[in-house]
C-alpha cells in the first residue's frame, strides 16, 4: 500500500515540477542577459568597468532590499509565504519580474542609463520573490531525501537558460536588433518585451495548473523574532552564499572583457559570447550530474552510466548552440572528467563535495591570473562546471535543522545574494586600477571562504550523506 501511495504522490508532483522547471529556465535566461548588457551598455554610454558593474549592483542589490524587507516582515508579523501560500507568491514574483522587463522599453527609448538600472532593480525584486518561494517549493514536491536532487535538476534547467542567453541574447542585441551592426539603445526594447510576454504566459500557466498545497501549522504561520540567527552554520552559510553568488556573477560579468585582452585571446564580443556560454553551460552539466548523483533511488553503477551519458548529451547540446568548432570546445571534456571525479571523491556528501569543488576553483582562478593565452582562457571557463552544486549545497547545509525557522533562514540566504551586487562592483573598481586579470584575486578569496565553510560543515555533519531538507521544512 505504501508503495502505491508513494507512486501516486510522485505522479501528483510531476506536472508542478515540470511547470516550475519552465520558470527556472526563463529565470536563468533573463538573469544571464546581464552579462550581455554589461559590454553593451559600457559601449553605449562610454562607461568605466566600475560604472558598467552597476548593472549587477542594481539587479542583485534588489535581492538584498527585497529579502531584507521580507525578513523584517517575517520577524515582526509572521512569514508572508506561509500566510498566503507558495502559488500566489510565485505568481506575484513572475508578474513583478515581467514589469521589470517592460521598463526596458522607456529606458531604451529615452537612452538613460539610470532608467536601465531602475528596470534591472525591479526585475531583481521579482526574482527575489521567486528565490524565496520557488526553491523552497521544489524541495517540498517529494520526499525530503530527494530535495537536493530535485533542486539540482531544476537549477540545471536554470543553467540551460544561462547557457542559451549569451548566444541568443548576444545575437538579438549585438546583431539582429542593432542599428546596422552599431550599438543602438533601441536594441533592448523588443527582446525584453518578448521576455515579459513569456513570463506572463508562464504566470497564466501556473495559475491554471493545480499545484499541491502544503498546510502550515499555526506555529509556523506565526513564527516571529530572530530565532534563525541562533544557528551558527546558518550565519556562516549566509556569508557562503554571499561569496558564491558574488564570485560566480563577477567572473561571468568579466569573461567577455577578459577574453578581449590581447595577452589572453584578443577576441571580439561576437566570439567571446560563445565562450561565455561554455562557462554557464558548465554549471548546467554539473547540476544535471548532481541531480543524478544525489538521487538515492538509483544504484551506484546506474548513476555512473547515467552521469556519463547525460554529460555527453549536454556537452553535445552546448556544442550545437555555440558558434565554435569542436577543436575550440574539446578542452572542456577534461573539465567534465574532472567534475565526475570530484563527485566520486565527494561520495554524495554535500559538505565534502562543496569543499572539493571550491578548492578546484581556487586553483583554476590562480591559473587564470598568472597565465596568458589559451591556458588562462581554459582555466576561467572551467570554473562554471565546479560552481554547479555550490548554491544548492551551501543552501542545504545552512538550512539543516532549522525547523520552524526554515523560511526565515531562507530569506536570510536570499538576502546574501547581495554578493552578486557587491563583489562585481568591487572587482570593477579593481579592474580599473590593476587590470581585469589581476582583479580575479577577489573571487579567489571568495572561493577560499567557501572551501573553509565546506570543511567546517563536513565536520559538523560528519557521516551524514544527506543534509536536508533544503528549504521549507514543513
TrEMBL record:
PROSITE patterns: MFS. The chain crosses the membrane at residues 12-41, 53-73, 85-107, 113-138, 159-178, 190-211, 232-256, 276-295, 304-322, 328-346, 353-370, 376-400, 412-430, 436-456. Pfam families: MFS_1. GO terms for cellular component: plasma membrane. It is found in: Cell inner membrane. Residues 16-462 form the Major facilitator superfamily (MFS) profile domain. InterPro entries: MFS, MFS_dom, MFS_trans_sf, MFS_TsgA-like. Its main location: membrane. It comes from the Bacteria. It is a multi-pass membrane protein. Keywords: Cell membrane, Membrane, Transmembrane, Transmembrane helix. GO terms for molecular function: transmembrane transporter activity. Coiled coil: none annotated. This is MFS transporter, FHS family, L-fucose permease.
Amino acid at each position: 500500500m505504501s508503495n502505491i501511495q508513494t507512486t501516486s504522490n510522485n505522479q501528483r508532483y510531476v506536472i508542478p515540477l515540470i511547470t516550475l522547471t519552465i520558470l527556472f529556465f526563463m529565470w536563468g535566461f533573463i538573469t544571464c542577459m546581464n552579462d550581455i548588457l554589461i559590454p553593451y551598455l559600457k559601449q553605449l554610454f562610454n562607461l568605466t568597468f566600475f560604472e558598467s558593474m552597476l548593472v549587477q549592483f542594481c539587479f542583485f542589490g534588489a535581492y538584498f532590499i527585497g529579502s531584507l524587507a521580507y525578513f523584517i516582515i517575517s520577524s515582526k508579523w509572521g512569514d508572508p509565504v506561509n500566510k498566503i501560500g507558495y502559488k500566489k507568491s510565485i505568481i506575484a514574483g513572475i508578474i513583478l519580474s515581467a514589469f521589470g522587463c517592460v521598463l526596458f522599453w522607456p529606458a531604451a527609448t529615452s537612452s538613460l542609463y539610470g532608467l536601465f538600472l531602475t528596470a534591472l532593480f525591479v526585475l531583481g525584486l521579482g526574482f527575489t520573490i521567486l528565490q524565496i518561494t520557488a526553491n523552497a517549493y521544489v524541495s517540498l514536491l517529494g520526499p525530503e531525501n530527494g530535495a537536493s536532487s530535485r533542486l539540482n535538476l531544476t537549477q540545471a534547467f536554470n543553467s540551460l537558460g544561462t547557457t542559451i542567453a549569451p548566444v541568443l541574447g548576444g545575437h538579438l542585441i549585438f546583431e539582429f536588433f542593432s542599428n546596422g551592426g552599431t550599438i543602438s539603445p533601441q536594441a533592448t526594447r523588443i527582446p525584453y518585451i518578448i521576455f515579459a510576454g513569456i513570463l506572463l504566459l508562464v504566470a497564466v500557466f501556473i495559475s491554471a495548473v493545480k499545484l499541491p498545497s502544503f498546510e502550515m501549522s499555526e506555529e509556523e504561520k506565526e513564527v516571529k523574532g530572530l530565532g534563525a540567527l541562533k544557528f551558527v552554520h546558518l550565519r556562516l552559510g549566509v556569508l557562503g552564499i554571499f561569496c558564491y553568488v558574488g564570485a560566480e556573477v563577477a567572473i561571468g560579468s568579466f569573461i567577455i572583457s577578459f577574453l578581449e585582452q590581447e595577452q589572453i585571446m584578443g577576441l571580439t564580443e561576437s566570439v567571446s559570447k560563445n565562450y561565455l556560454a561554455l562557462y554557464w553551460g558548465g554549471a548546467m552539466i554539473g547540476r544535471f550530474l548532481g541531480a543524478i548523483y544525489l538521487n538515492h533511488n538509483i544504484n551506484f553503477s546506474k548513476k555512473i552510466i547515467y552521469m556519463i551519458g547525460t554529460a555527453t548529451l549536454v556537452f553535445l547540446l552546448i556544442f550545437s548552440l555555440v558558434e565554435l568548432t569542436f577543436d575550440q570546445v574539446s578542452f572542456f571534456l577534461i573539465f567534465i572528467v574532472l567534475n565526475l571525479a570530484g563527485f566520486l571523491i565527494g561520495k554524495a556528501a554535500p559538505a565534502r563535495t562543496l569543499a572539493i569543488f571550491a578548492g578546484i576553483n581556487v586553483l583554476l582562478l590562480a591559473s587564470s591570473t598568472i597565465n596568458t593565452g589559451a591556458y588562462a582562457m581554459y582555466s576561467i571557463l572551467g570554473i562554471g562546471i565546479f560552481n554547479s552544486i555550490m548554491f544548492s549545497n551551501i543552501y542545504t547545509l545552512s538550512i539543516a535543522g532549522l525547523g520552524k525557522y526554515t523560511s526565515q533562514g531562507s530569506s536570510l540566504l536570499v538576502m546574501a545574494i547581495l554578493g552578486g551586487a557587491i563583489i562585481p562592483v568591487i572587482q570593477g573598481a579593481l579592474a580599473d586600477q590593476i587590470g581585469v586579470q589581476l582583479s580575479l584575486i577577489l573571487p579567489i578569496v571568495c572561493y577560499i571562504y567557501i572551501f573553509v565553510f565546506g570543511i567546517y560543515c563536513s565536520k559538523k555533519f560528519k557521516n551524514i550523506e544527506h543534509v536536508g531538507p533544503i528549504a521549507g521544512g514543513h
